[in-house]
């Protein structure tokens, strides 16, 4: 059986924080606010995978009330999710995603992000697709107050 999962995530951006996206520390004057490292892309991918597996959502598996996840690398969430999929004999076929922010430009960072994400999920580069959009200057995303991501994951099992 083939199944898909969809996800959306958003984090506020603030000065004095790291901007972690797809497991990479992207140089920028602001970073994402969150209990873990605030990695909007990893969170969206994780949630899409959990959705496709029928395993609820990221908040259930990695609650922000749990001190264990404070400042944690979101790549741990991906690795743990991969384990949950393995236990259920679910195979990742493909992950597609969109990251929405006005700045910085993400395209140049995508090759390295794909490598990190593919490694964390135990899949090949071709199974991870990343896209970037601006919000045309509109709303909180357009004003650089937040960063958002959508992801869809397809599993087989
Ligand atoms: Zn998040």
Features:
7 strands, about 30% helix, binds zinc ion, globular, about 30% strand, five-stranded mixed sheet, about 160 residues
Report the uncertain regions.
none
- Strand segment tally: 7
What class would the helix/strand composition place it in? alpha+beta
**Measured distance between first and last alpha carbons:** 6 Å
Oligomer: single chain
Order of helices and strands: EEEEHHHEHEHE
Hetero groups in this structure are: zinc ion
Globular, elongated, flat, extended or rod-shaped: what is the shape?
globular
Helix fraction by DSSP (H/I, runs of at least 4)? 25-40%
Mean pLDDT: 96
Hey, roughly how much beta strand do the residues contain? 25-35%
The description of the largest β-sheet is:
5 strands, mixed
- Report the total helices: 5
User: What's the alpha carbon Rg, rounded to whole Å?
Assistant: 15 Å
Query: Strands across the major sheet, in which order?
Result: 4-1-7-5-6
Q: What's the short version?
A:
The chain has 5 helices and 7 strands. Helices cover about 30% and strands about 30% of the residues. The radius of gyration is 15 Å and the shape is globular.
